[in-house]
Amino acid sequence: MTDIAAPAKPRSPVRYLLMATLRAFNANKTSWVGLVVFVLVVMLALLAPFLSPHDPLEQNLIARLKGPGDTYWLGTDNFGRDILSRLLYGARISLIIGLASTALALVIGSLIGMLAGWRGGRVDTLIMQVMDVLLAFPSLILGLIIVAMLGPSMINIIVAIALTSIPPFARIARAPTIAMKEREFVEACRSLGYSDARILGLHILPNILPEILVMGSLWLANAIRTEASLAFIGLGVKPPAATWGGMIREGFENILDSSWLVLAPGAAILIVVFALNLLGDGLRDAIDPKLKGEA
Amino acid sequence: MTAFLVRRCGFALVTLFAVLTLVFVLVRIVPGDPAQLILGDQASRETIEALRQRLGLDKSLFEQYSVFIAGALRGDWGTSLVTGRPVIGEVLNVLPWTIELTLLSLAIGIVIGVPLGVAAAVRRNRFVDYAARIASLLGLSFPPFVSALLLLLGFAIALRWFPVISGKNATFYEWYQSITLPALNLGLITAAYITRVTRSAMLEVLQEDYVRTARAKGVPWRAVIWRHGLRNALIPVITIVGLYLGILIGNSVLTEIVFSRPGLGKLIVGALNQRDYTMLQGMMVIYTLVVVIVNLLTDLAYGIADPRVKLR
Question: What family, per the record (chain B) (predicted)?
């Protein structure tokens, strides 16, 4: 990673990143498994309108609470809506909220962390104390309260989840920034009179990006789980839109005789979160063997 | 030790104030008038005005803030808008349920997680290690309410070993019946986290020189692992457990809902559904207190586990 600032003709950064990514993936087969499953889920979500056997919102009151069968592969819910179609459409909401909130937290958190590490001193202490306080507060409770206060719309859910996941990104970006600050190539940039923004953005960021992105995949898993939890509590995107957590919430009322109502969406959440964890965990092993397995 | 303690208590106080301020701000950034929101569109001007006065919303922001902070510290958190009873009483009523559940889960997590993590680290890249890693990754992928539902479906509905609704504790048998599934649910997820941290911390420690020295001078391998290894690996484990308690408290909300168990979780969801703002505010204060106290205890645990910490 150090040869990014190499003199004379540097290798093409795109090619370098591609090769490094491939190496990281190959180091741990489980990350491939995670990636394939996740890409599959993304495809299913994108193709939901073509793949869904039924309209996810269409109620068929004659076919209420039907078990899995020929017409309805995964059965129907209390309103006679097709579970499979609702699962496919629900994947879209989970992924949009997960990706948007993680991206938001990643960008803001990394900026904060890099700034704290770069400035050092009091700014650093203050920022990190604030982050520690945020980190200490139970994120689900904080998310729950923010969504409850602002109202359960998609944007508000994204903001709430993003807010609760900023501190870990700030932490992960700060440590390597401090380490980089002392390196010769940064020294060189400074003596050339480059601006702080240029050094941070063009010279330090590429070096710490892999770690941040790997964290991103792990926090994407967390964001999807949090979204499902919020929806289960009743703070998801408003019904009748299909969300996985919301489906479990509705199915919970009929759990005694229609267990498929909670099993199908439960399995969906578990598969996506597990795939992302496999992906992120394998990659983290590859780029930093020292961090192996840390929660 | 005293200086260490004073510094940590100072930080805890600062944290407390910061979060209380955050709570104050959060409750007040609600779009629209809280009184209007609580009473609904049908309410008359007079009732809204009366409620505004009762909530102290007619005062200046600064006055509201000082009243709020003073009240929070004195234990006066207002009265529930729904039941009309003091918030603190309602909270204290259910707090033991949540504390009991959380502590028991933590104990289950430690009892399973620490030995499993040590075993995985010692037998690195062997079967135990792979099994422990996959199992723990799966464990921390489970949304707590999904795992709770599986336990409920399996052990309460299909096997009928436990009641579907838990929350009785008159006799020991009733207590055991009602707490087993919820505690197991949270405990297994906690174990997943603890296994992973213990494993990685042990892996690092086992490479240290002092471990080699201990082995070289003939200390039995078992003693090396548990006395030299684990003792030094405990610091990161305690850090993560301290941080994880926040997650555990959040997860207990979901578990309490699934098992219909009394506790802070059911209280906060009830307050959300009924738009009970004073109750919500009080809930956040109690969560803050819990978090601050847990952090303080974590710091103390550091001091006990590693005497070097005190010097810092």
Answer: Belongs to the binding-protein-dependent transport system permease family.
